[in-house]
Amino acid sequence: MGLWDVLRGHSAPRPAKLDALFAVPSAALTLEASLGLHPVGSGAVCFRAAEGRAATLTQQEASDLVSVDGGPHTESRVDEYGYTWLTIRTDPPDVGALVTDLHAVNSSLEVQGFGSGLLCSTVGFRADAGPPVFVVYLYKQGTFYPFCPTGPTSRDTLMERQVRDSLGGDLPIEEDTSRWMPIWGIQDS
Question: What is the pTM of this model?
Fold first, then answer.
């Protein structure tokens, strides 16, 4: 970035910190010990898909990357805002393998030039009874936040704060709670 860019108010995009995802398995142990939350074996990568054949091929390549023989089940859907959700499911739940697959999909999309369209990655958890809890990785911030939906348009902010407090030593938590966006419909992911 040059002086002219600075004078015009342009800034360089913050580099992605995808390796932060590899801290999630350790965080999963913390969630289980402190709050009784167990991994459910599913996670997703959310991105704005570009148009055209190259974008379609890249999305297919990302899905194929993790869907090799005996690998996890993947599915793709487009939400009402035009974001594509590539969901990965492991059975039995394996957070380490899931995170590796999420990292591979993110990396593949980034290498193919679609990094600017990456929004977030999610990993699901659940207590023996109760609603799901998601740990959400914000791609552009390099931080995580909890999202605890309790219905189609409601969330458990107290549980979100408990998860945040539990994970503070394991993951870089997003301090600006205005970035803790609700991801309604994620239960379907």
Answer: 0.84
